[in-house]
Every structure is written in structure tokens, then in C-alpha cells.
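re the bet — no i am not wrong, look at it urself. input seq straight from the record:
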Amino acid sequence: MNASEGGPKWVDMPSISKMSLGGIEAGEDYHDLGMKYPDAPVPRGIGDVIVHRAILDDITGVSTLIDWISEGALVVVEMTDLLERDMELHLAVNKIQDFVERDLSGQVVRLGQSRLLLLPPVFESAGID
């Protein structure tokens, strides 16, 4: 870009309402699309999968994880904040594991020290022989 242009060009798109932009301003560095469009329609075709990532701060977030996995999504859960609260950690993991493995016949896979991967029943993890 040369000096005479003076910055990025903004293109007017009549097909997109300015109200639907959620207040995006020129020069804004970061757009939190989750905040701007919390219920964005995501078209899904046959075989498409949504991957959710979440930070589980306490046991109250377990119900959201259960909703996602029951809809067939893959879920990666970060639980660093729960590691110091042993009883709450075990309660949350047991509740998640009971639902995913016993009720849905899915899998819970440990990823390192602080993460879990929740797999719905249509996915299989590769076993290590």
C-alpha cells in the first residue's frame, strides 16, 4: 500500500445490513465473533462436524458440554482452573464421563494434564497397540 492510499479500503455491501455487523468499527483490531454472533446459523451438510473448545471453570459449565456432545459435536475442554479443586474436578469429570461413555456410547480422551477430548459415538479414537 502506498502513502497516498492512507489505509485499508472499506467496501460497502448493500446486501449486509449495518445493524448485523455488531458495531464493527474501522481500525478495530479484534472481532470476537462469538460475542457479536452468539447464535450464528452454521449450515451443516452430511458428515460435517462442529468442534467446540471450552474452558471449564467450575461444574456449572458441564451442562453446556453435555448439550454440545449430544448434538454430535467434538468438544475440547480445558480444565486448568479445576485442577486445584480436586473434589470439584472429579465430580465434573465423572459427570462428563458418565454421560459421554455410558449414555451416548462416546469416548472421553485425556489430552495432556489439563484437557479432555469428548468424542460423540460416530467417532473413534485410534487405540495404541
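see?? Residues 32 and 38 are 10 Å apart (CA to CA). told u. also The chain is about 25% helix and 15% strand. so pay up
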